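Before going further, learn to read the protein records used in this course. Taken together, the tokens spell out the fold as the letters spell out the chain. A record is reproduced here so that you can trace the correspondence yourselves:

***
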Amino acid sequence: MATPSPFALLLPARAAVYQLLRTPFAVEPDEAFVRAVADPSTAAVFDGFWNAADESLAAPGRAAMAAWQRAADARLTAEEALRQGAGAFCPLFVGPGPLAAPPWESVYGNGDQTLFQASTLAVRRAYVAHQLIPRTYPHEADDSLALELDFLAALGERMTEAWERGETGEALSAARSSVQFLDEHLLRWIGPFHTKLSQTVRGLFYRETAAVIETFATADRSLLASLADAAGAPATEVA
């Protein structure tokens, strides 16, 4: 096997990053989460990925991360908390009433913005193929942002464990599955979702979070493909 790219050294952090990014779309962010975002050590973890990525992907990532940390710092200031979106989780993502930025893939794949479309079933098939059934099934749509990020985190854990055991084939299979899922699902709708959040004042902190998700997932997809290429396996060839 060829010498792995520097990205291989970052594999243990990938799952943790996806779980961090998932959190504010699964539950209302608490102070501990916001402080974790604002902590310089968090930026240092992301810097590892930006440094490994092509500069065309790294520069937007660093800018998005800096904006996210500024939003977190502002949210920690009491007088700025409401403006930065504290208490916005239910109005934005749960209801009651129409949602300004629905957090489900299917909404962005059809003109009538309805749930449980073909994309939802495609996401479910991906979960089933890897025996990763969401704990909230069947009470939450499979294609919610939180569940898609959770799935990528789970694949990341499997990939890291296989890599550390020396089971390169299994690790690369998880990498290929991650690339396929990013291409067919998350990266197809995270941009429009980010745009929706940008159009609502309640979505300010979430807007910055979505921007980091978009830039990180784009860089991650590129880095996964490079890792597979370095190991001599096409990233887009699904096992």
